[in-house]
Amino acid sequence: QELIERSMAPIKKEFLCPPPPSSGLVQEKKSKRQLKRERREQSTINLCPQVARTEDVDSCQYKDKCRFNHDIEAFKAQKPDDIEGQCPFCAYGLSCRFLGTHRKEKSEMNFFNKETQRLLWKNKMTFTNADAKLKSLGLEVRPMKKAKDSSLKLHPREKKKLIDFRDKLYLAPLTTVGNLPFRRLCKVLGADVTCGEMAMCTNLLQGQASEWALLRRHSSEDLFGVQICGSYPDTVSRTVELIDRECTVDFIDINMGCPIDMVVNKSAGSALLNKPLRMKNIVEVSSSILETPITIKVRTAFFEGKNRIDSLIADIGNWGATAVTIHGRSRQQRYSKSADWDYIYQCTKNASTNLQVIGNGDVYSYLDWNKHKSDCPELSSCMIARGALIKPWIFTEIKEQRHWDITSGERLNIMKDFVRFGLQHWGSDTKGVETTRHFLLEWLSYTFRYIPVGLLDVIPQQINWRPPSYFGRDDLETLMMSESAGDWVRISEMLLGKVPEGFTFAPKHKSNAYDRAENG
Known about the structure:
9-stranded parallel beta sheet, 8% strand, FMN, tRNA-dihydrouridine(47) synthase [NAD(P)(+)], repeat, NADP, zinc ion binding
């Protein structure tokens, strides 16, 4: 009990060990530009994709003007050794790291249309519905080329597509780790609702391909939404109209709770919590021009101790939102302290009957899920975020109502599934393999925090518990619980082969990293 009060995990005595000695190494902090330059200097020959597929140097339409290399023999001479296993998907020909085991599969959608990108680049895309609605409300419409016929067809709430979140397991939109392969993995493990990573409206309207890639959807995601973030009604409404035109989605979620400085400084994310009239205008315009349901995600407030969602919740449904997700922390609080579920319950009970309310914060076991649903029956569902990053099998635990004492072998098989999905999504050539490795390592920087059920004196583990130094029931389990980025890299090598010479890795969310100094 004393350990729990100090947020220390109560590990069984037989698994405790002295903390490892400090290495004394001072990590060299490198800028992104320096890392990029080092990668470029160490880069291998990039064979032309068309030549790689056809094995014919004359097949490339660009000939000598092609920015890729056409020397097949030189490419073969420096190509890394193939990785053992079956190619999960291939359109890469000679570049594939699983050469000779190819099969084709197309199971993703929401690819970015090149013609749409061209129109966005040239600022010639028209937004008939969004601009007409903005004008009718007297809201600012910043100049763009107008459509010739500006007739607006409004969709009353009763005509909107219906979406029911009640009792469905909702995987939160997660930056970096919430990529398509990870969402596929969570679907396999029991998630019902998935949502893409947050995309910035301005980047989408500028036709940035990397931002549009965040909207990609796999065919297994049968209830799928995208999350966007913007500052003004015209920017957001044009974006939702464009997404509705170009993509297949079941709902569009507008982020009004992101605490990141870069987002807040642009008057987006949780900065909107200080501008309720703008929140209303964004939701009202966006929801009125689409049949696709609009949902929003908020925090309790911008400043700690100054909650304000309770004063807005009764009106949000009348603005046109189908659902609202409330993260039980303020922007100032970020992820410190526990989520305030009592406040989420209060807001839920004050919401109009036509608005579904979803709670978010610290759900880490089926008991947490059951408690929130029992304490507040009006709550439609709970969104699961960090709990899914640390143990994506939480969806299985909730559906089967058990604490899964998962073995290291079972966890490794889950990682193998992620790698397979990653190679299908990012490609099985060298670039695809290393992209898959990067996102695997980002995920491992979260999942090492999981403490196996069989090692705990008290279950279930709480998300804020810090473990003492301990070891697992076998060598693989001990490796998986290591907080060393070097050990995460070793796990990646078990699944994707050796890392390239000079490989470095620093997770986005924390300072510990893997570089050449750590490996001597």
